[in-house]
Amino acid sequence: MMNANESKIKKQRILIYIFFGFLTLLSILPFWIVIVNATRTAEQIQQGLSLIPGTNFMENWRILRDGGFNIFQGYGNSFFIAFSSTALSMYFSCLTAYGLTVYDFKLKRPAYLLIMFMIMLPPQVNIIGFYRFMVNLGLLNSYIPLIVPAAASAPTVFFMKQYLQTIYHPALVDSARIDGASELKIFHSIVLPLMRPAIATMSIFGFVQSWNNFLMPLMLINDRSRFTLPMLVQLLTTDTYTTQYGSLYLGISMSIIPLILIYLFLSKHIIGGVTAGGVKM
Amino acid sequence: MLKKKLGVTIGALSTLVILSSCGNQGAVGTDGGDDSLVVWSFTDEIEDIINNYYLEDYSDLDYDIDIVQFPTEEFERILDPLIGTGDEPDVILMEQNFAKKYIDSGYLTDLEQFEGIREGSQSTYDYVKEVGSQEDGTLVANAWQAAPGAFFYRYSLAEEYLGVSEPEDVQALISDWDGFVDTARQIRDASDGEVYMIASVDDLRFAFLGGREQGWVVDDELVIDDLAYELLETALEMNEENLLLDAPASGAAYFAGMSNDEIFGYSLPTWGLNFWLEPNGGEATAGDWRMVQGPSTYFRGGTWVGISESSEMKEEAAHLIEYATTDQDFLERWANDTGDIVSNEDVVEEVRGDYSNDFLGGQNHYAEFADMIDDIEAGFVTEFDQTINDLFLDHALTPYSKGEVEFDTAIRNFRQSVSNLFPYIEVGLD
Amino acid sequence: MQATTEQSGKKRKLAKIKNTNKFGYWFILPFFIVFAGFNLYPTLYTLYLAFVDISGFNFEGNFIGFQNFSYLVTNNLFLQASYNTMLLWVINFIPQIGLALLLAYWFTNYQLKLRAQGFFKSVFYFPNIITAASVAVIFFTLFDYPRGPVNMILMQTGVLEAPFDFFRSAFATRSIVAFIQFWMWYGQTSIVLTAGILSIDKSLYEAAVIDGATAWQTFRRITLPLLKPITLYVLITSLVGGLQMFDIPRLLTDGGPNNSVETLMTYIFRQAIEGGRNVSIAAAASVYLLILTIILSAIIFFLIRDKSEREA
Fold first, then answer.
1. Chains meeting A at 3+ CB pairs closer than 8 A?
2. What is the bridge-based pairing of β-strands B36-41 and B64-69?
3. Which of A202, A244, B387, C38 is most buried per CB count within 10 Å?
4. How large is the ipTM?
5. What is the mean pLDDT of residues A167-193?
């Protein structure tokens, strides 16, 4: 009886692993095909599918570059925006979370309720007004509209506050207060270091989210040298590359490789962050 | 104390961000600084003209020329938001399909105030100036090129399947659309379906639509010319009878037909010869092409150049435009180097006499093109062309020619789609 | 004497802490300044734009009341876009939540004791971090006609005799868009649900095991009912995200064929950028979207508030 049950579970387990194997293929195969095709000639790609890399990488690279696909500039621009907005978002979210956790003031509850309400409001819903406002301010082509709004990220504040509530205790800061340290100094020297784990988790998500942002830069940036990576990817769909399959695939590959690398090193943190919940990318 | 420190920190952080983004902008912004003439283009021809001709002749300019190129499909989306903000590039290149939008916007500079352009454009073809003028007749954009359209065919394929091969004989066969379709059938039957008359509906689209007398929109009303209806029927007929390959326009298969023996011919304008046929035909078919007028008189494309009203380098910009569109020495060199039909009548008359193109088996296509220019009517060019042409292709021509929808549905979908993007246009739906 | 000093010291400390409370305003001020400038004002500005008639190269418009709003409710493309947005969400969410529940059930099944869970979770989540724009272009090339990889595979294996033009078929294009959404999000959903299951009180399961319940029975009778709030949370976040769908339909077929994957966001973008550049119509459509999102957000808001207040 017990044995029959055991073997049934064993069978089940094997089937599940096979199914997991299938899902694993589904996750990886599309990217693998793209990366392999980045090393093949247009003719080879037209002739059939291969899972083994070819030898045409350099030629594809040459065609891609000659078409004006300045990937390194794109990396630079995307990195600058993602890094700045993440740094801003982390700092001010911790600041806000700290303000809402430690102090008691009249507008604390309304402020917190407002932030919680905004968690679910995606920034796109007011994009038309946002866009026209930026045009009026002369901020078209500037990175300011892509970076500064990150300082008011409701989901990050919410996450930081949840975290802070679990680690904060008045005793932590009392002695520093008695020593006469300013409130801001206390925040910088005592609280901020304690929040490092939460910052690490949220930074990854903030960075990836900003890096992947397409609609906002698409509307706001029209200076080619300031294009972000997803905008360069969009250029790949235009006529310039329609017949150059190898370089088209190479362009896509180069746009996703940084993220694949990030994921290889940080997937544990990322999964941890998702598990901790409250994370919506 | 806290107030101050917090203020300082916030101030420092935002300054940092603002500085770093502005710092970037200063170096590469659309204004390009004070001593740089910013040129926005969708075609790399202007780079050739500026670097290999203009800067050779004027090597002592005390400013830089900054050429920024975008894919044609993206050009309007990227330029539009800047129009009227004062941050426009100095020099704007415009394709026929969307030129009118900017020409009629009121944000381009009157070119006739510059003596050189005013005089130089005396011998520019009328249709070129008509497109480049605002509704009130003010010239705000000029072009270096005229783009009459023709039909290019393969000499050897004509000989094999039609029994005639010389341009005048082939032209006699395809001088109207009935003849064109009959000839296509003849080629299909003689080749057992191996050879198609044309590669794509685009070879019909421009030849039909480029010959209309009225534009898509007249007095805020959508006008569907009889030629557009004929285009739909012809495309369906040719597709159903396997007379065209139905390759996606400007795709791999479309260009591949220029070097294999699968396609009999292409409807292309002047620039199609230099930019598409020669590079894609390559060694395989060089010398085997000939050019005829085909069933219709039309023009397709062309590049107009204007100066933004907000430019602070108008004189410098005008100098460039005067050179690129009216300088007869340059235009003659350009014509001889590229085979392009230029916009200047005097130069064309000068060049046409003893022109011979090896790719066309020694044919003097220049003279033939030159004759076609006089028949060109530019009255159908409107500010709506890029969008409405695309809508017509997506909602009527493509689905109808593939047999996906009925005729009435195609027309209704097209009218509806125009109304969706231009609510104020009366599209003729109930 | 000593006692007094101590007492007054304590008093002083307390007073000081009380005094610091007003600093809370300074700490949250930057957030609200940025919020006001980059969020609240643009939202109000969107509202203003929706009541005027700005289009083309114009910067100024006339007040026209609710005309843009009434135009939209009778406009076939806007209605089509609303329908598509919902349809695409439904056909991606149902299989997504189904598979995610199944995976969560397996991950937490005490009889199965699956190994390498961390690895599989990472792999299933992986597509989610890849740029949606890149993903769209990848699927566009994979399903290319006539000689893209998918057509090649289907022809080599004999499933198809002639290549199939996926992006000329409304059904195929919608399926591909929905599949991409499903594929990018089922990993995330299954991880969230797994975490939800693991947070359920263990003693409930122990009792069930003692009663001789099978794993499936405990899952159906205990886990599923207790998982309701978190499932609702997943559903609404997914719906709010689904309402914003833009990158993938835009870069895959730009809404085609025949507007079959035109979504609310691609519609808004198109109105603002293409054709007559009808900014005010785009703004009015955004306001509809905003209202819808606010309703959904309100639901989530009460869910989270209840939860966090219970915890507090």
1. B, C
2. parallel
3. A202
4. 0.90
5. 88
- Whether residue A88 and residue B17 make contact (CB cut-off 8 A), yes or no, is yes
pTM recorded for the entire structure: 0.89
Task: Domain of residue C119: give its range.
Answer: 76-131+169-311
Does the pLDDT value for residue C178 go beyond 50? yes
Size of interface A-C (CB pairs under 8 A): 284
The domain locations on chain B are 33-146+301-352, 149-298+358-421
pLDDT tens for B46-96 read 999 999 999 999 998 989 999 988 888 889 988 998 898 888 999 999 999
* Phi (first) and psi of residue B82, to 5 degrees: -85, -20
Contacts of A187 in chain C (CB under 8 A): 27
Name the DSSP letter for residue B69: E
Please give, rounded to a whole number of angstroms, the shortest distance from the CA of B106 to a CA of chain C: 10
Torsion angle in degrees (nearest 10) through CA of A217, A220, A225, A229: 10
**pLDDT tens, position by position, A12-29:** 999 999 999 999 999 999
The answer, for C138 touching chain B at a CB cutoff of 8 Å, is no
CATH class (in words) of the domain with range B33-146+301-352: alpha beta
At B297, give phi and psi (nearest 5°). Answer: -95, 125
The CATH number that domain A70-236 falls under is: 1.10.3720.10
Residue B6 contacts C where some CB pair is shorter than 8 Å: yes
Whether pLDDT at A243 is above 70: no
Q: Do B309 and B109 meet the contact criterion of CB atoms below 8 Å apart? A: yes
The pLDDT of residue C204 is: 86
Question: What is the CATH topology of the domain spanning B149-298+358-421?
Answer: D-Maltodextrin-Binding Protein; domain 2 (3.40.190)
Q: Is A271–C125 a contact, with Cβ atoms under 8 angstroms apart?
A: yes
| Number of separate domains in chain C | 1
Residue of B nearest to C259 (CA): B395
Residue C21 lies in a domain: no
Phi-psi region of B303 (alpha: psi -120 to 50; beta: other; left: phi over 0): beta
Q: Rounded to a whole number, what is the distance in Å from the CA of A233 to chain C's nearest CA?
A: 6
Contacts of A51 in chain C (CB under 8 A): none
Amino acid at A230: P
Task: Give yes or no for A70 touching B (CB within 8 A).
Answer: no
Tokens, residue A195: 């929040």
Q: Which of A129, A187, A236 sits opposite C43 (nearest CB)?
A: A129
Question: What is the Rg, in whole angstroms, of the alpha carbon atoms belonging to chain C?
Answer: 26
- Domain borders along chain A are 2-63, 70-236
Backbone phi, psi, residue B291, to 5°? -125, 135
Which site among C12, C27, C231, C306 would you substitute to test the A interface, given the most A Cβ atoms closer than 10 Å to its Cβ? C27
Nearest to C297 among A120, A145, A263 (CB): A120
CA distance C31 to chain A (A): 5
Size of interface B-C (CB pairs under 8 A): 49
In the block, residue with structure tokens 């993938």:
C248
Q: Is A63 on the interface with C (CB under 8 A)?
A: no
**Among B16-30, C54-68, C114-128, where is mean pLDDT lowest?**
B16-30
Q: What is the DSSP string of B13-47?
A: HHHHHHHHHHHHHHHH-SS--TTEEEEEESSTHHH
The residue-averaged pLDDT of C29-44 equals: 95
Write down which chains contact chain B via at least 3 CB pairs under 8 A: A, C
- Residue C270 located in a structural domain: yes
pLDDT-based confidence at residue C277 (cuts at 50, 70, 90): very high
C132 touches chain A (CB under 8 A): yes
